[in-house]
Design brief:
The N and C termini lie far apart (44 Å). Helix 2 crosses helix 4. An eight-stranded parallel barrel has the order 1-2-3-4-5-6-7-8, surrounded by six helices. The longest helix is centred in the C-terminal third of the chain and has 17 residues. The protein is 39% helix and 13% strand. The chain has eleven helices and eight strands. The protein is an alpha/beta fold.
Length: 274
């Protein structure tokens, strides 16, 4: 594949994000195409995450597991072409980084080279995984970590369950976060955990945490764009605040268009060539 480099460096870099630890909150949203990439960038977000959640909200999969590397490169390069300022991070899909450092470096390198994104995001916190992250970072590829509920491990975790509860749960997450920090990750997403647990994890590391369903104690927040816009009507978890109801807006607009076509109202003289 040919590379798709951005025309100019982004104003917000991974170093910018890392320096925001304990400072101004970091605003992150997902995007999957050039149009929404441009819109959220113009709205002033700090990070645009090209999530493998595209498998859910775009492709209709029940999980993120079927998403491929080529699909993430396609979505990532599309988003990068619309973003001028924000830091663009691309999710590494399932089974593209877990087997070995060599395989992970190869695939992560492809993502940066072929999309023009600034970093990749990967799920996990084991000692073995942290060693892979360290090798990736050492190769010159910035990494955002992801702890708590990790969607690619949904079959192991038994569903969309809050993490960090029970004996040893908090310490386990703290240990994982410290491993990722030591490995060179510049930030960590914390997903689906009690607010106090996420706060403890956040306070245990010197890199920013970005929460989703993890309370207000994180250094920033992330939401999936179709969820916050009210496009994904069937998905209403406790942590989600909808800031619009675009599903109704879209339905009403298309219905009006349909009525105009069927009634002979569109196209009229104003919308026709002479």
């Amino acid at each position: 594949m040919s590379s798709s480099q951005p025309t100019s460096p982004k104003a917000i870099t991974t170093m910018t994000i890392r320096a925001r630890k304990g400072g101004d909150k970091i605003v992150t949203v997902t995007a999957y195409d050039v149009l929404f990439g441009k819109l959220v960038d113009e709205a002033g977000v700090d990070i645009v995450l090209v999530g493998d959640s595209a498998g859910n909200v775009f492709a209709g999969y029940n999980t993120t597991l079927p998403v491929t590397l080529e699909q993430m490169i396609y979505h990532g390069s599309s988003v990068v072409r619309g973003v001028s300022n924000a830091c663009v991070v691309v999710d590494m899909p399932f089974n593209t980084y877990q087997s070995s450092s060599a395989e992970a470096i190869k695939n992560c390198g492809r993502v940066l080279q072929e999309t023009g994104a600034s970093a990749v995001k990967m799920e996990g916190g084991s000692a073995r995984f942290a060693s892979i992250v360290a090798d990736i970072v050492d190769s010159g590829i910035p990494v955002m970590g992801h702890l708590g509920f990790t969607p690619q491990s949904i079959n192991t975790l038994g569903g969309n369950r809050v993490q960090g509860r029970g004996e040893g749960g908090v310490q386990r997450l703290i240990d994982q976060a410290k491993r990722l920090e030591d490995a060179g990750a510049f930030s960590i997403v914390l997903e689906l955990m009690p607010a106090e647990v996420a706060k403890s994890v956040t306070e245990s590391v010197g890199i920013p945490t970005i929460g989703i369903g993890a309370g207000a104690g994180c250094d920033g927040q992330v939401l999936v764009l179709p969820d916050l816009l009210g496009l994904n009507e069937g998905f209403k978890p406790k942590f989600l605040k909808q800031y619009a109801n675009l599903a109704d807006t879209v339905r009403n607009a298309v219905k009006q268009y349909s009525d105009d076509v069927r009634g002979g109202v569109y196209p009229d003289d104003e919308h026709s060539f002479r």
